[in-house]
Amino acid sequence: MSNERILDVKGLKTQFRIDKQKVAKAVDGIDFHINKGETLAIVGESGSGKSITALSIMQLIPSPPGKIVEGSIELDGVDLLGLSEKQMTATRGNDVAMIFQEPMTSLNPVFTIGTQVSEPLRKHKKLGKKEAKKQTIELLKLVGFPRAEDIFHEYPHQLSGGMRQRAMIAMALSCAPKLIIADEPTTALDVTIQAQILDLMLDMKKKTGSSILMITHDLGVVAETADRVAVMYAGQIVETSTVKELFVKPKHPYTVGLLNSMPKIDQDSERLESIPGMVPPAHNFPQGCRFAPRCKHAMDKCTEAVPDLIEDGLNHKVRCVLYDGSGKGVTHV
Amino acid sequence: MYKYITRRVLQFIPMLFLVTIVVYGLAQAAPGDPLSGEILDPDIPAEVLEERREALGLNDPIPVQYWNWLSSVAVGDFGQSMHYTGRSVADLVTSRIMNTLYLSLFALGVTILVAIPIGIYSSKKPYSLLDYSATTFAFLGLATPNFFAALIAIYFFSFQLGWFPSQGTVSSVGLTGFEYFIDKIRHLILPGFTLGLASTAIYMRYLRTEMLEVMGSDFIRTARAKGLGPSSVLYKHTLRNALIPIITLLGFEFGTLLSGAVITEAVFNYPGLGTLFLNSIQNRDYPVIMAINLILAVTILVGNLLADIFYAIVDPRIRYD
Fold it and tell me: Where is the ABC transmembrane type-1 domain (chain B) (predicted)?
């Protein structure tokens, strides 16, 4: 893994206007980067802003009401936010591709799989019908369709969810993008299929050398696929580190809570732990640390100001007053 | 698919049978008969009229009359008109049916050519000036009864502006070739637009709503995520899905147009099936009423079948087997 940054996001803020007074700060100033060939996972609960982050990179935020108000998104040195819509259209599917959560509804019901998977090839690589078909069938074989020629002519409704997600992966891979964004790619699938799809993605990453941004709420997926991880809460990144480190030494109380709410094979507990309360709505964040109202370590200092993301250990950053030098840290797990 | 179509066509037979019973009953339930509505020569003695009734079979019990009618229709004989003495029903109907067909096709063409582009534009730029104008027009079109729209059209475009003729299908008998064709079209414009008004309004709104709904679906996001340009997303991925219900509705539309033409034709004094139908009802000309009614019923049934077939063609998820 080189240290060349394929994606570099700085100070990204994406907001949605709800009405004249209210603005939802769905993504509120996040920085992260992905190195070449690396997989970064963004984890968080529903409503933490992780999908909006993905859509911001693709610039597929429904606008209005959504808008990227600040920041920069550099893909291989090019600031995507500086591109015209036409240039961005040429970038999507070509340099950066996306796999969505819902394979059942993410394919157009009236076109064949072949038509849909070959579309990026025909658009970006300017391939003719025949050549596109040949390459598409190769792609379909690559993602594990044994009878790729038949699948080429079949419609989405003839395929199961897992097969459709394979078709989506084939589509995303078609132009060998520098970055693949996978937004909860296994959430809608059966558990047995989930493992297959994750294996397929890792396999494809190895073959193509693409980097992956994995959006998920499932720490199991993180452990299985990612090199580094960023934990998002209420539109901000609250902790980032390597996956190994995060599982062994989680620092932020929210991360600790997430890890504790996972079932463990060596513990025979009756109930899983849960984090009380809910993610605050994006138009009404609490003062100071946004996790404070749900945090068992909360103190007066927490509500004064949003804590900075501070370095604590090698490549490990955390946004919590417990680690700003005065505190003592959390005893975890 | 062929099995399905055959089965559906066979189902037509009992349906048409029921339709004829109901319509025959209703026609007979109206007071009077073909001879009673006329301003009669007072010198004709009552016995002569009675003889005539006897000859036409009007004094038979209604089930017997129905049976006589049905048995001759079954062998393809629609009988003689009771009003236009000496003219066969088949002759009367064929002399009018082409005019009505032209009118319906013209109205259908207006509907498609106006509703689809405006519907697409409205969905592309919702809440724009044109969208609001189209919406206003649509509500006006839906709220205005056919005959009233016809009168307004005649008043402005015929009497005030003198652009188009207000009635008939030809201005003079001497026209031939291209001039004749143009003259026909000029006569079709006012009744055609009037007849197409309501359905244009409906389809425009329908397409706009469908387009907006499809635009919000996941697969449109996928299409954009793979880097397709706005026109490809709109005309290929969105329109193809939004047209599914529209194309299906067009099948039903044809039957509706034919029956809707009755009123429009009457206002424009357009010599089609509609005016013939109205006159026949006024004259209690039972054989003509029944024949036109059968034509309308068959058109509607075939239209519905076409709608179902179209549906299977445009939506790969639908299969009849």
Answer: 97-307
Domain boundaries defined on chain B:
89-314
The two three-digit tokens of residue A26, written as one number: 């769905």
Question: Smallest Cβ distance to A100: which of B218, B232, B316?
Answer: B218
Q: Residue A242: its pLDDT value, please?
A: 93
Q: Which of B226, B239, B241 to mutate to test the interface with A (most CBs of A within 10 A)?
A: B226
Give me A82's structure tokens: 């500086």
CATH for the stretch B89-314: 1.10.3720.10
Q: Smallest Cα–Cα separation from B158: which of B192, B118, B130, B186? A: B186
For residue A312, what are the contacts with CB-CB under 8 A and spacing of at least 6? A251, A318, A323
- Beta partners for residue A12, in sequence order: A30
Length of chain A: 333
In chain B, the largest separation of any two C-alpha atoms, in whole Å, equals 88
Give yes or no for A92 touching B (CB within 8 A).
yes
Subunit contact B224:A100, Cβ cutoff 8 A: no
Residue B90 or residue A265, greater confidence: B90
pLDDT digits (tens, 9 = 90+) for A44-93: 888 888 899 999 999 998 877 888 889 999 998 889 998 898 999 999 98
A1-95+220-264+277-333 topology per CATH: Rossmann fold (3.40.50)
Question: Is residue B269 helix, strand or coil?
Answer: coil
**pLDDT tens digit string along B81-101?**
877 777 888 888 888 888 888
Please state the rounded mean pLDDT for residues A290-300. Answer: 87
Q: How far is A10 from chain B (nearest CA, A)?
A: 22
pLDDT in tens, B14-32: 988 898 899 888 888 877 7
Enumerate the residues of chain A whose CB falls inside 8 A of the CB of residue B223. 108, 119
Q: Which of A110, A119, A157 is facing B226, going by the closest CB pair? A: A119
> Could you give the 3-state DSSP secondary structure of residue A245?
helix
SS3 B60: coil
Whole-number Å distance between alpha carbons of A238 and A321? 11
Separation in Å, CA of A92 to nearest CA in chain B: 4
User: Do residues B97 and B258 make contact, with C-beta atoms less than 8 angstroms apart?
Assistant: no
Kindly state the percentage of chain A with pLDDT values over 90: 35
Contact A184, A101 (CB under 8 A): yes
**Which among A69, A67, A76, A78 has a CA at the least distance from the CA of A29?**
A69
Query: What are the chain B neighbours of A188 within 8 Å (beta carbons)?
Result: none
Spatial separation of the C-alpha atoms in residues B240 and A181, rounded to whole Å? 28
Give how far Cα A2 sits from Cα of A177, A209, A211, Å. 17, 11, 11
Residue closest to B270 by CA, chosen among B116, B107, B108, B34: B107
Q: Label the pairing between strands A236-242 and A317-318.
A: antiparallel
Q: Which amino acid is at A266?
A: D
Token output for B258: 């034919």
